Amino acid sequence: LPPFFLLQFQPLSKERMAFSDFPPPAELPNNMHHSEMLQYLRLYAQTTVVSVRQRLDFDATGQWEVETERTEGQRETIVFDAVIVCTGHFTKPHLPLTDFPGIESFEGRYFHSWDYHSAEGLQGKRVVGIWIWSSGGDIAVDISRVAQKVYLSTRSGAWVVSRVGEGGLPLDMLGMSRMDMMLQKLFPSRSARMLEKKVNKVFNHGLYGLKPKHGIFVQNAVVSDDLPAQIISGHVQVKPNVKEFCGSSVVFVDGIVYMCVIQVDVVVFATGFNYSFPFLPSTLQAKSGYRLCLYKHVFPPALSQPTLAVVGFIHGLGSITPLAEMQARWATRVNHSLLLKYFFNHLLALQVLLGPCTSYQYRLTGPGQWAGARQAILTQWERVVQPFRTRVIPEPKTRPSSTRSIIVISSGAALLCYFFYNKHRTSISFPLSFCKS
Fold first, then answer.
1. Sign (positive/negative) of CA torsion 338, 342, 344, 350?
2. Any idea what DSSP says for residue 218?
3. Helix, strand or coil for residue 46?
4. Backbone angles phi, psi at 35, to 5 degrees
5. Of 75, 172, 212, 216, whose CA is between 20 and 30 Å from 397?
6. Strands lying side by side in the sheet with 109-112
């Protein structure tokens, strides 16, 4: 993991990040620390891949030799009929120094966010954060607690949301149901305007200098609970794009209207990452622009046998875990299908249609069906609430909802789902359309 992950808690809640057949333990916090997330992932794999090589008879068999190394240093080579690469994007820091004239003569210190460990050594410093990737906001907040001033430079701005939603519940468990997604597809512009208005009620993005040109559904929002507080207290100042560096100063410019020169000590480049697959044959690393050349973002087309797939090498809206898992299941021809019969099981129908769209829904039926999927869906809110029960407050009894209301809601939901399912069958059954190249 990059060092800066040591200060991070997950931007998405555990239920939204979970694998479809492995609900996270109820006692884990909703937004896990990186160490807890790593523990969850390590239940799936604890080896390091050294190399992946095609066998001499690959054209006939499609087989691969995979050399691995365990944590104890023991190496092993195993022959596999197929290989799925799941290392993702964030493997090699991207430091575009040529885009910042004068940086080579900058008298201060500069480094990529990959190398950020903590704010130690930055006490009393004036720091500029070049914010292109989401970690820039987290690092700016962390540094601002000890630095004299932090200037957060952003070329395009960003929508910023909190982890905490209404009632103190995880924000990404609210307003993320299948019903919400249906309405968003039917009324995209109106849905975007309504959500942007709601986000601006928390704090005005234009007033704070953060309002982007793109809509809220175009890119992932930056998740930060502390950034608005650090801006309003003056510890962080939002600045436009950097034009150039001059000695120990940085020049900010926004078109030809505004220019500002500020003396700084340190520059942190949160400018994203390049990908790297050093264990793969060089012939498989052909690029199409900045991307690997992959059919459906999964299969290298140059192979004579389609026995290697790349999974998770995508940008999606929301958690990448369920998207990557769906890619893997597609690559292995394990498809899912939400049959309408589940919408006549009223309790489950309400959870599937009106509750958060968690990955367990894709295990209800079809190849790879998991017997625990129904229970995982019906108990997901219990796992959300459990970490809060460190001091239980008695609540007054409330009147139960009437049976008639439940029947009306269930019937209406089922009818709407049936209508939308027939109109948009493809986008519901395989929502990788959210993925971007």
1. negative
2. T
3. coil
4. -70, -35
5. 172
6. 109-112, 266-270, 126-131, 149-153, 236-239
User: Other CB atoms closer than 10 Å to residue 341's CB: what's the count?
Assistant: 10
Residues 6+ apart with CB under 8 A from 204: none
Q: Which amino acid is at 101?
A: P
105 SS3 class: helix
For helices 403-423 and 346-354, angle between their N-to-C axes, nearest 10 degrees: 60
Q: Which residues contact 316 (CB under 8 A, 6 or more apart)?
A: 323, 434, 435, 436
Q: pLDDT digit string (tens) for 266-283?
A: 999 988 887 778 787 777
Complete DSSP assignment for 109-152: EEEEGGG---STT-TT-EEEEEESSTHHHHHHHHHHTTSSEEEE
The H or E element containing residue 41 is: helix 34-42
- For 114, counting Cβ atoms within 10 Å of its Cβ (0-12 exposed, 13-18 middle, 19+ buried), the class is buried
pTM: 0.74
Bridge partner residues of 181 (DSSP) = none
Q: In degrees rounded to 5, what are phi and psi of residue 352?
A: -70, -40
3-state secondary structure of 79: strand
Q: Are 297 and 327 in contact (CB under 8 A)?
A: yes
The model's pLDDT over 151-175, given as tens digits with 9 standing for 90+, comes to 999 888 899 999 999 999 999 899 8
Question: End-to-end CA distance of the chain, in Å?
Answer: 24
By C-alpha distance, which of 41, 18, 85 is closest to 327? 85
10 Å Cβ neighbour count for 291?
12
The owner of tokens 């999927």 is 373
Partners of 288 in the beta sheet? 291
pLDDT (tens digit per residue) in 401-413? 554 555 555 555 5
What are the C-alpha distances in Å from 133 to residues 247, 253, 335?
26, 20, 33
CA–CA separation, 269 and 20 (whole Å): 36
